[in-house]
Amino acid sequence: RTGSDSIVGGLTALAYYAITEQVPSQTWVMVPNSNRGTYPKNYRILRTKHDPKIEINDHGTWRIVTIERAIVEAFAYATKIGYQTALAAARTSIAEEKTTEDKLYRAAKDLGLWPLMTKYWEAIIAK
Predict the structure, then answer these.
(1) Local confidence band at 28 (pLDDT 50, 70, 90 cut-offs)
(2) In the chain, fewer beta carbons within 10 Å around the N or the C end?
(3) Angle 119-45-36 (CA atoms, 0-180°, nearest 5)?
């Protein structure tokens, strides 16, 4: 419904990986920034300039961002998701050993979001 380059992301991905207590009322879908159009009301569309082929888990008929990309982009879209939600998700995923600091770093670097993540990094890794 949202195009071949669309991927499940945002708050839906954080809930899918069970690293947030929030359950979204809409399915958050990320589409390329060039995609303009109308979408069904049960989708929350995030237009992104980040490569839709980096840090993706392909499940055949649907694709979802990896846990690392979900966390990194939660900080990138903190105005929509919330800084506290992003920080709690990052800390929870590391504490529950679902990801590591190194994997988060590599995902941020691959997506070109490492400069953004540097200002949050100390808060993420603080014990």
Answers:
(1) very high
(2) C
(3) 115
Nearest CA-CA partner of 30 in 68, 3, 59: 3
Helix (H, G, I), strand (E, B) or coil at 24: coil
For the cut 70, the answer to whether the pLDDT of residue 124 exceeds it is: yes
Listed residue (47, 52, 24, 82) closest to 90, CA to CA: 82
**Pair of tokens at residue 99:** 């990801």
Taking 70 as the threshold, does the pLDDT of residue 27 lie above it?
yes
- Confidence (pLDDT) at 39: 73
User: Which residue in this structure is represented by tokens 């839906």?
Assistant: 12
